[in-house]
Design a protein that fits this description.
The protein is mainly alpha-helical. It has five helices and no strands. The radius of gyration is 12 Å and the shape is globular.
Length: 76
């Protein structure tokens, strides 16, 4: 059974998602375009941006590459 994560984890996921959204918008990409570049569904991008999803490292690396931002900047 999955264990419930502490509230601060959701807060961090939301902050990271907001940085991803800002970077995507700065790169003039729609959620659909970012999803296409990363090989995922646009709903996945939406969930990540709103802290509803817990993406793996590989996907975070792909997102960072697609928006032209170092991964460290997105997850700081």
């Amino acid at each position: 059974m999955p264990t419930e994560q502490p509230a601060w984890v959701l807060t961090r996921r939301q902050a990271i998602g907001a940085r991803i959204r800002a970077a995507r918008e700065h790169a003039n990409l729609s959620q659909l375009a970012l999803a296409d570049r990363c090989g995922v569904d646009h709903k996945t991008v939406h969930r990540i941006e709103y802290g509803q999803s817990d993406p793996g490292l590989g996907l975070l690396i792909q997102i960072a590459h697609a928006v032209g931002v170092p991964l460290a900047e997105l997850v700081r």
